[in-house]
Design goal:
Order of helices and strands: HHEHEHEHHHHEEEEHHHEHHEHHH
Structural class: alpha/beta
Largest sheet: 5 strands, mixed
Shape: globular
Helix content: 40-55%
Strand content: 15-25%
Strand order of the largest sheet: 1-2-3-5-4
Distance between the termini: 48 Å
Number of helices: 16
Length: about 350
């Protein structure tokens, strides 16, 4: 088995795999496949460990493969796979070709193999021509897909210009058939009375990033302003959109649908809401969230200050709703326009 793995990958890759998996054990499955069929078709009902030597980049139906692995693993079982991430691919292409030419090759590769698979109308043509092989995958999308398919990241390591990951099965897959692809996304957020709403935003993160909130929080915690530190999920274009508030413009749709009002507490994801005290979580449910949160009026520096800011806003809103929103709106306006308060 060692010789087979080394021949398919490398000595270093084998050492990484052997550190976690007994490759010769009947409780372990070592394969190199891009299809779910070859995993589902195994005679053994379940395995303690599964290793797939095939790059994630060469799988047309990535989630189907991950779901098949989940199905064939026992609870708590481990899965090892690998991917050439977007950043590693960029380094490889720029290093392979001479200056100037390398950027031309990289740009063409990015447009054809990164952009077209996510554009309506071009997606079918792309997969018909390429069969889904050698596609560009970001680290955030790969790990996000794994989390959506019921896994938790245990370890990761760069080997031979690939990111090798070790994940553990912790639950059943989500079976997300409507992932946040495309330039306009709809994020699940809690609205008034605990009702789940879909908040419209311009894409600033890689696909499947919403499944990585807990992972990023554990890795980096929160920075000043209450955002995640060193958030690798944000794209280069996304940082520009956030700097100028352009990512928030589609939320006007939510204003028209009356899911949001102009000023109010921020609509939160399930994970971010879980960081709030339970009693304040319950109180927030009584109010319609807002497009402009108290954050931009008070400019708190950490989560505790953000919660205090929202408490003060809601206390004032209970007494004088219209006057409170009027004051908070203009204070936020001054901070955004003149003090350059921005989302990170």
């Amino acid at each position: 088995m060692k010789d087979l793995i080394v021949r398919e990958t490398s000595e270093d890759a084998y050492k990484y795999i052997a550190k976690y998996v007994e490759t010769n054990s009947p409780n372990s499955l070592v394969t190199s496949t891009a299809t779910a069929f070859n995993i589902e078709n195994q005679f053994t009902k379940s395995f303690k460990s599964i290793v797939n030597l095939k790059r994630v980049n060469d799988m047309r139906y990535v989630n189907k493969v991950f779901e098949a692995v989940n199905f064939k693993l026992e609870d708590g079982g481990h899965f090892i796979g690998n991917v050439e991430t977007y950043s590693l691919r960029k380094q490889r292409i720029l290093k392979k070709y001479p200056p100037i030419i390398n950027w031309g090759v990289y740009t063409l590769d990015f447009m054809v193999k990164r952009v077209s698979p996510k554009v309506w109308g071009l997606k079918k043509i792309y997969f018909f021509v390429t069969r889904g092989q050698n596609r560009v995958m970001s680290k955030a999308e790969t790990l996000g897909r794994l989390y959506s398919c019921g896994f938790e990241v245990v370890d990761e390591e760069l080997i031979d210009n690939r990111l090798y990951f070790l994940v553990k099965k912790i639950k059943e897959p989500v079976f997300d058939y409507n992932p946040t692809y495309g330039p306009l996304i709809r994020l699940k957020r809690e609205g008034k009375d605990g009702k789940m709403i879909r908040v419209y935003k311009a894409r600033t993160m890689h696909a499947y990033s919403e499944y990585l909130q807990e992972y990023v929080y554990k890795q980096n915690a929160l920075q000043e302003g209450g955002k995640f530190k060193n958030d690798f999920r944000i794209t280069t274009v996304g940082r520009i959109l956030r700097k100028f508030w352009l990512d928030e413009l589609p939320m006007i749709i939510n204003l028209l649908k009356r899911d949001l009002k102009i000023v109010g507490v921020r609509p939160l994801s399930n994970h971010y809401r879980s960081l709030y005290p339970e009693e304040f979580q319950q109180r927030r449910k009584k109010y319609r969230p807002g497009l402009v949160p108290p954050f931009y009026a008070d400019l708190p520096k950490d989560l505790e200050e953000i919660i205090d800011s929202e408490r003060r806003y809601l206390d004032a809103y209970d007494k004088h709703p219209f006057i409170t929103d009027w004051k908070y709106f203009w204070k936020a306006f001054v901070n955004i326009v003149f003090k350059k308060a921005r989302s990170n």
